[in-house]
Amino acid sequence: MIFKETQRFTQWWLWVILLATVAPFVYGIYQQIIIKEPFGNNPLSNAGLIAVTLFTSSILVLFAYMRLETKIDAHGISMRYVPFIKKNIPWSEVASAKVVKYGFVGYGIRLGSKFGTVYNTKGNKGLALVLQNGKKLCIGTQRPKELEQIISKISHQKNIPQ
Q1: Which residues touch 136 (CB under 8 Å, ≥6 apart)?
Q2: Tens digit of pLDDT for each residue in 68-100?
């Protein structure tokens, strides 16, 4: 293993938004089901309140579980966006590789940027790949300088343009 990076959604403001979305429904369950007082002027049924709470809580759990894993070795690049995507790209399929600054494209999986599909948890730098079949993708990184050195070395060894 030459390079390994695991990124998570650790932005404080994101967690404030997620918790602020879930908290009222958790309180609503407490008020309506435990204390037995209606939650709001036009309360949901208990089942509806539980369903909404489970749905919003599942989004919070999803963000806690999601991570972007990048591994680079002599064989190629392995990328996982847990729990959605897993890609293994051998060096023989890479037409070009370089570390780029892509500007803010949002977080998650973004389609259609000039770098193709962008996989990102935070920041605005990533490994931009063009594959032999013409497809483009960009894998976000929080360690661009280290990644740039590694890609430069591998590109030179494997004769891959940067």
Answers
A1: 115, 116, 117, 128, 129, 130
A2: 999 999 899 999 999 999 999 999 999 999 999
Confidence (pLDDT) at 160: 75
Indicate the average pLDDT of the chain.
92
CA-atom Rg of the chain in angstroms: 21
**91 strand-pairing partners:** none
Q: Is the pLDDT of residue 105 over 70?
A: no
CA atoms within 13 A on the CB side of 111: 0
Residue 20 has pLDDT above 90, yes or no: yes
Could you tell me if 109 and 118 are in contact, meaning their C-beta atoms sit under 8 angstroms apart? yes
CA distances from 109 to 33, 37, 51, 66, 102 (A): 38, 42, 27, 12, 14
| Sheet of strand 76-82: strand arrangement | 3-8, 67-72, 76-82, 85-90
Q: Give me the helix-helix angle, 46-65 and 12-29, nearest 10°.
A: 160
